[in-house]
Amino acid sequence: AEEIPTAKSPLSKILWPLLLGGVVVAIGLWAPASFITHLTVFVLASFLGWKVIWDVSPSLHTPLMSVTNAISGIIIIGGMLQISGDITSPMTILGAIALFLGTVNIAGGFMVSQRMLNMFHK
């Protein structure tokens, strides 16, 4: 059974950009300037990262993902800096979560890298 793609209605083609525009205007009106700055950097970094990764040949994906361990290392350092406060503080809890997830990501990255290197071992 082959799926037949459904055509988008003209209303949905107009509704989603209008909704997104409304959200952007609402954020611009009520969010503090520092949030707008951070959101702009996040969106630009996400878009740039997506464009850089999109054109990478499949043979380079695993080595490229291994390099992202450096980013997780920065996250771990940030998490360690945040866990020095009160144990019930949301900042301390989020720092501990970042520390844990960054550690899991680095360990998994090294495991994947080791498996990749073992493929070329004679």
Topology:
Layout lengths: L9 H21 L2 H22 L6 H7 L1 H14 L7 H30 L3
Helix pairs in contact: 3-5, 4-5
Descriptive notes:
With 122 residues, the protein is an all-alpha fold. The chain has 2 domains: 11-55; 57-122. The chain is built from 5 helices and no strands. The chain has helices at residues 10-30, 33-54, 61-67, 69-82, 90-119. The radius of gyration is 21 Å and the shape is flat. The model has no long low-confidence stretch (mean pLDDT 85).
Rg is 21 Å
Q: Spans with pLDDT under 50 lasting ≥5 residues? A: none
Strand content: under 5%
Helix-residue proportion: over 70%
**Structural shape:** flat
Major β-sheet annotation: none
Task: Assign the structural class, choosing from mainly alpha, mainly beta, alpha/beta, alpha+beta, or little secondary structure.
Answer: mainly alpha
Beta strand count:
0
- What's the end-to-end separation, in Å? 46 Å
One letter per element, helices H and strands E, the order comes to HHHHH
Number of helices: 5
